[in-house]
Design a protein that fits this description.
Blueprint (H helix, E strand, L loop, with lengths): L2 H12 L1 H6 L1 H16 L5 H33 L3 H22 L1 H8 L11 H10 L3 H10 L15 H24 L3 H12 L5 H6 L17 E3 L8 E3 L4 H14 L12 H10 L8 H11 L9
Antiparallel strand pairs: 1-2
Amino acid sequence: MKTSQSKGFQDSGSNLQPLMVFRDRHQMEWSVNQSRELSADIDEEGSFLLNLWNGMVQLFVALRYLFVHVIWRPMDSLPLPVFKVGMLSLVAIIFFWGHFGGNESNKENQVLIGGEQKENSEESNDALFAASFPSPMKDKKERLSDGTSGPFANLASDNIDDKKAKAYIRRFSKVAISEMHKFGIPASIKMAQGLLESAKGESPLSTNNNNHFGIKCFLKDCKAGHCSNYGDDSHKDFFRKYKSAWESWRAHSEMIAGGRYASLLENKNDYKAWAKGLKSLGYATDKEYAQKLIQTIEKYHLDLLDEA
């Protein structure tokens, strides 16, 4: 046999594979034609099942053809080490992307207001908060936290009240920032009010009612579970109940931005003007309320929240 003839014979042999792939396809087409002739003798349900089966067989043949010619045969020309390295690289990319790539979006989605949200952990909250600032601000935070994680980390000199206050700040810092961007209320003011009104999250009103801002109820026909009585200025004072602390934070934002306190939005991030305005408009009966807000903000550097 001549060399050219041998090569042609080999080429023709290499082309047999796709023909072999379609051999059962031709047989299938013949069986389909035969089944159509028999379909007249089959009821409607049986005819539907037969057509469904034939369609599945045709889909299987088409997929096998694509696999052989698009995936399998091109890989035959690749050296085995190249294929192994490629597959290992693909697996590594999928693993690391799934492990690290989605964390940031998942953390952001956790900060929601409503009944279905989940609270951020203090560590993830601090990490997200610190990452939102330029380098000079990060350095300032590191000095404030004495080199530990986050801007509101506990210091060796902190007493029990300071540690409770910082734990509260770490818990709600992302919510305060989110509400600030949505409603225009400085996060420092919201955080200071939350600290004072809820006694760092430990007052009966905050633990029993999830009411962190002393929001009262003025409705005369409340439904069961809407509010409850607490002895504050009067035994007739009724305070709102919330399903979660996060709902209380949102209710506070809506009350400030949409009620008699709305004029304070003109103060932007001037927390001193906000504190004095809240007192003058009657948010609290405490004569020292404005000064207490300002002192709380400056003691715990809550103005950093306004820069986020």
